[in-house]
Write a structure and sequence with these properties.
Layout: E1 6-13, H1 16-25, H2 36-41, H3 51-66, E2 71-79, E3 88-98, E4 102-111, E5 114-124
Antiparallel strand pairs: 1-3, 2-5, 3-4, 4-5
Length: 131
């Protein structure tokens, strides 16, 4: 593995259950993450995924590739287009740096309306753990 290498993409179906379960698991009880009618009253067409769920999915994407013993050291992400039920988010990653033990990966996640997430993740990779 070296700088410039691309990770295989991961498609994640965005379901109502995933959005609500992620909000509940992260103790985010904001109505826009579980109540479609209240979300619409606030100007959203439906409920939408919270940043902590996205953060977890980014972590899953990287540990699926680098192995379950990889350790996420720094996660810096920003949200853009919301993830709504019924969409598909495609996560992609590009290695920015790799020194044999530490990798810095640029991650993006796109859905049907645009870029949902962008950021970088620094992780420690165990020997033999790079995909």
């Amino acid at each position: 593995m070296k700088a410039g290498d691309e990770l295989p993409p991961l498609e994640i179906g965005i379901t109502r259950t995933l959005i609500v379960a992620g909000a509940l698991a992260s103790r985010d009880y904001q109505d826009v993450h579980h109540d479609p009618e209240l979300a619409r009253r606030k100007g959203s067409p439906d409920i939408f995924m919270n940043i902590l769920t996205t953060n977890g999915l980014v972590g899953r994407y990287l540990t699926d590739h680098f192995g379950p013993t990889a350790v996420l050291r720094k996660v810096a992400i920003r949200l853009g287009a919301p993830n709504y039920p019924g969409d598909i988010m495609v996560l992609k990653g590009t290695v920015e740096e790799f020194d044999g033990a530490t990798a810095v990966v640029r991650v993006t996640g796109d859905n049907g309306i645009g870029r949902h997430v962008t950021g970088t993740v620094t992780l420690t990779v165990p020997p033999g753990g790079a995909g």
